[in-house]
Amino acid sequence: MALFRTSSLLSGPLEPADPEEAKKTPITREEIALVHAPRGPIAEQFRSLRNSVQALNPDGAPRTLVLTSAVAGEGKSVAAINLALALTEVPGTRVLLVDADLHRPSLEGYLGLPRRQGLTELVRGACPIDRAIRQTSANNVWLLGAGELPQNPSELLGSERMRTIIAQFKQRYTYILIDTPEALTISDASLLGAQADGVLLVVRLNATPRHLVEQTYNLLEGLGANVLGTCLTGAGIASDGERYAKR
Ligand SMILES: Nc1ncnc2c1ncn2[C@@H]1O[C@H](COP(=O)(O)OP(=O)(O)O)[C@@H](O)[C@H]1O
Ligand SMILES: [Mg+2]
User: Fold this and answer.
1) What's the topology of domain 21-233?
2) What average pLDDT does range 182-207 have in this prediction?
3) Nearest atom, ligand 1, residue 74 CA
4) Is 121 within 8 Å of 129 (Cβ atoms)?
5) Residue 207 neighbours by CB distance under 10 Å
């Protein structure tokens, strides 16, 4: 029996992105604190995370950062968008958000954009960079969506071409934020984390068991990733914020 992914059956092949189409779509989701409540405590926490990221990179050299977590649903994708917006509050900072969660992509959804060709097609050489990346309505934030979901994401993400593409991104953007699936059950985040300049471990407060966070940390570091610290997410985190220290 042949198995097909429901998404491609229902929607057909994805169209290439119009690089201009996203510029007029405002970001409206409540989770995106930098837009929805820019003076609130959650936005401030992302600014503080931004400051920590920048403090580790005083020269402002182009950097790739992977966001991952131990288990699903901890707030990686939302954190990636908030961090992108916080980073671009600093003049001259250009951020590319990459949806490398080829199992459950969500960045386009959070930004209110239609699914288009993206990372998969770019790595396969089926779509040029200018038709895969869209400028968003947020100043200096660009998006590379996931594109078609491949049968074997790890093969694609671990390919030589993926490395070449990331090197190209570093010539154009200051920060490349790579959203990935959870690290404990899917190997993609470890694969990308080992290649990136740094990894941020997203942890939902009072939800993720501590031993799973430690297991994830050890897994990533064991594979050569540079885990910069944790980004704590979840309601009511105002007084705590994110810790950001290499252990
Ligand atoms: N800062 C936040 N405030 C409110 N809800 C959030 C926040 N971060 C994440 N969420 C919610 O948690 C769920 C999972 O978030 P998401 O970023 O998609 O997780 P992941 O990418 O880790 O799977 C979503 O329903 C999202 O709306
Ligand atoms: Mg996600």
Assistant:
1) Rossmann fold (3.40.50)
2) 96
3) 22
4) no
5) 12
